[in-house]
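Hi R.,

Here's the chain you asked about this morning:
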Amino acid sequence: MMALFASFFFALHFVHVEPVIWLSASADIFLGLFAILFFLGLKQERFIMALVSSILAILAKETGVFLVVLIFFFWKGRRTALLLIPFLLFLVLRIPAILAETGDSYSLRMGLNIFRNLGFFLSAMFFPLDYRAISDMPGTPLPAILAVLLGGVVCAILLVNRESRRMAIFSILLFLPFLFISGSGYRYLYLPSIFLSIALAQALKGKIVFIIPVSMLFFTVHTTLDWKKAATITESTSRYIEKSTCDCFSPENAPDSKGSAYVFRNGLTALIEIHGKRSEKGCTQLFAP
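And here is the predicted structure, written out as tokens:
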């Protein structure tokens, strides 16, 4: 029953809408698959399986490197130490470039930003909360504050419960590195959601099998509708660019997102160029001011 509940929660979680619908986020699906295989390999002491899965997880998406924290919970001596090799190689090759990145959502940032990301993790694991609602502190709306507090209470309960404690710790540890970057989003919650699903199933012991999954389904449908509306806007914009006699368009005033669907942030300029036209300020505006 616990396995059934965990699978329902994971399958219906609104965090997973983006990787399924948005093609560029499909790497999260492969990362999740290899992360589960890596975890099973550690738990069952199948070290070859764990080693191959860790390499494939990192190749699928570089955030797979954070799976290294799981190794120390299943330490079995020299054989386990060999599993650190792909993670160490990645860190040696990639960390210098990460530290050099500035000015985007992947650059490092300290201070108040850490508490914003923590608040997002505590709330967005249970409610479809827009990260920008928290990033506007101190003007954070009351619903967002309540979501953070309630999410923190749930996480505390999972940590206190002996059955769910380890999986809750895994979920938190896999998100911790994201506390120190300048932005956040549902894509950072994919790995933590795997172990949070298991933790919830262990804590409830199958007693409330369908209440939480059904509520997750409601949020998932809402998020899916946002992506559908965003896709409609994108499609109509693409057709307009294609049929227009203008050869230059301005991406100014484009909406940053449609609800929880972030599809306009970086893609509009590329969409214009795909149709063989120029993207410059001062040209024909695609969106009214």
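One quick note: The chain has two domains: 2-209, 233-285.

Cheers,
M.
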